[in-house]
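Example record

The entry below shows one chain as it appears in the dataset: sequence first, then structure tokens.
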Amino acid sequence: MPSTFHSIETAKRSLFTQSAALNTTGHNISNANTAGYSRQVVHMTASSSMEAVSLYRSTAPGQLGTGVEFNAITRVRQTFLDDQYRNENTGLGGWNVRFDTLDKLETIINEPSDTGIRTVMDNFWNAWSDLSQDPQDITNRKIVKETTLALTDALNQTSRQLDALTSDLTSNVELKAGEINSLLSTVASLNQNISRVESLGDNANDLRDKRDYAIDQLSKIANVQVTELDTGYQVTLGGQQVVTGNAATEVTPDMLETAYASGTLTGGEVYGMIFSRDVYVADYKQQLDQLANTLANGNIEVSLPAGTVLPEGTVLNGVTYSDANGNRTLNDNLTVTVQGINGLHQLGYTVNGTTPEAGGAFFTSTDGGTITAGNITLNPEIQNDPNKIATSMRTDGTGAGEAVVKGNNSLALIMAGMKDTKFDFGTALSKPGTVDDFFSSIVGQLGIETQEAKRQTENASLLTQQVDINRQSVSGVSLDEEMSNMIKFQHAYSAASRFMTTFDQLLDKLINSTGTVGR
């Protein structure tokens, strides 16, 4: 036999349940634009009916329902889509940084342009060509001096910019380590809070959303793997376990460098930074260093014209040229191998003084070490006195009466032809090539790598967006759907209210009107 107030209880349960559904709908609508939020749903179930089977079962037919109740409020989320999104996001983070670095390298190399290294190299060769037409003209000598300084300054500046980019990438790794630690601390703290809330039997939906959003952010910085344990998320970053329960391990830049070197750090922004620094920037710096050093000291073959008078004690192809050997003056053209512009410049004579003065090294380093793009410069002696630029390869007289033929332009002509002369760049090219060819290969390589990085970045972005769209179709808040739910729950609430009002009227009639007939 049901209670007299049975229907009031049924209506009350309906009011409570529909109210919870409306509140949840309002919560969803409020967070429609909240990053990382997953829509929540109220799980409704029919409450236990009356008159269950028993020894003393009532003879009333059927089972009488007792209304509705909700047993949980859960978020809609698919772990598979989360994992897929994080994998794609890791790739996107890495390619974004690599493309950005290559884009900066293109700006540093600045080719093709009217102000890049190629232009100052052309000016350098042209200045030698002009000097060969009038080797005694001081104006042309000063132009050779200034164009050489412009070339070395361009190489120095490019090298400094590459060093600055290297330092910037290293600093960014340190900054990302700090960002990682902040997110790991957040995940560990949320693990603790979620465990405390859910130990009471509730679902910590909003806290779980915050934790997953922190993992999403981590996935862009470095490759992460997540395992859910009883104590919360166990997080592995770059192959190293960094979060277990409420404990987070501090990540240092050295740890990230070690993970990269061991091959466990395979994606994300940090991977892109270290890869860009150690592969892209280091490679282009090495190639520019090689260009500068080869220009100064790389092996080249030159043909010395008959009549050339070599400086006393010159050694070429294992042969010493001296007055004692009587072979300083070449009777025929001679093809020899010399060590770059420096070696060639030392075969000629300056126009200083009355006695022959052999040319010194044309290029030197500012620090006295091996010549690189960062330290190459014009010999300070030539900077101070352009007349120390060697242009002649002829002398008159012998012994104390020997004098330089200052109007001779043999060396200047050979120097002007160095633009088309093949230098030995070692392993960088399969065969010797011109300086212009080598620099063109650098520019071409940079262009191809940038184009590929751009393509990969666009592909990674599209894949990440596609997975995120799939994830949002499951977990995201649809305002249209929520509005429909709100109307549905509103009508259900109104109907339950009307139902309660109706039974209130029935009870009022029963209680206040029964037994009053005949009074």
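Notes for this example: The two ends are 31 Å apart (CA to CA). The chain is about 55% helix and 10% strand.
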